């Protein structure tokens, strides 16, 4: 896809907003906050190694995972910019046990779910990481928000996106009207439209999963992977295995090239590792909007009603033909 003239993210949002008669400007304020947060985190990520920002924080988050210094920096940054924008009543973050309710914004309609820095294990080795976010509208904003108000199905997302701090810094997002991608022009410090109306290929030849865990995978997943690795000219197999270990980077590659990403449940961890609200739902909304599929193995990801802010779900996501095929295997052997 060629780099488009110069349509900045701000211009793009203003143009989109003009299509909605009742737009209040709240949406563009939230996006400006997210954009600012991402630029600040991007600046810190680019300096990692030069300043004392690499390594462990020495603390754990609510999910028992060691926090990296950059995890904490990104978390603080996004919570601060979202609190200041004046349109967000609550923030749910991977790094925070509870929802953060923002003072003075009790009657605002929107809340944001965020994984401030996904792919933490890649920070210290200079591989791609990113920020995942979803925006939801409260059903009723006439009272101070409660945690239960933040437990909506992924199908209720108003917008979802991710910032990828990779070879270049990108924003991919959807508001339910297709998916568009913006690349940060470092000299201008502006996100510019670079990938208009992204469509994921229906099929693909890439499978991404942590094969080290094979012995714990359900039999259907094991059989599907064996099938992916068999030689067959007609279907172009064996497929390529690609796994960065950073959800955003793995799904982003498959979004552009075609492929499947799997993080299954296991006997010990039936819901897998990835978090429903700020990892699976966000990526599912984007991938579905691009023409792909996202499933838990039991149901469509976006149909799951969360009961806990940090609940996990198995994830099969990517090109529709590949996801359907993997699900066939899962059902056959379950
Ligand atoms: P994080 O949010 O703590 O970084 O964990 C989520 C990451 C995903 O980005 C990635 O897909 C997955 O964990 C990799 O897990 P594993 O190391 O088990 O393969
Ligand atoms: Mg994460």
CATH architecture name of the largest domain? 2-Layer Sandwich
* Cα end-to-end separation: 41 Å
Overall CATH class of the largest domain? Alpha Beta
Portion of residues in beta strands equals: 15-25%
Are any ligands bound, and if so which?
A: 2,5-anhydro-1,6-di-O-phosphono-D-mannitol, magnesium ion
Examine the coordinates and then state which fold CATH places here, giving the name of the CATH topology of the largest domain. Fructose-1,6-Bisphosphatase, Chain A, domain 1
Write down the domain tally.
2
- Number of distinct helices: 7
Structure description:
It is a single chain. The chain is an alpha+beta fold. It has two domains: 9-195, 2-Layer Sandwich (Fructose-1,6-Bisphosphatase, Chain A, domain 1); 206-333, D-Maltodextrin-Binding Protein, domain 2 (3-Layer(aba) Sandwich), CATH 3.40.190.80. The protein is 29% helix and 23% strand. The chain contains seven helices and 15 strands. The protein has helices at residues 9-17, 26-47, 69-84, 219-229, 247-257, 276-289, 320-333; strands spanning 56-60, 66-68, 88-93, 100-101, 110-118, 129-137, 157-165, 169-174, 179-185, 190-195, 206-208, 240-241, 260-263, 293-295, 315-318. An eight-stranded mixed sheet has the order 4-3-5-6-7-8-9-10, with helices on both faces. Helix 4 (219-229) links the parallel strand 11 (206-208) and strand 12 (240-241). The longest helix has 22 residues, at 26-47. The radius of gyration is 19 Å and the shape is globular. The N and C termini lie far apart (41 Å). The mean pLDDT is 92. Residues 94, 115, 118, 279 line the site of magnesium ion.
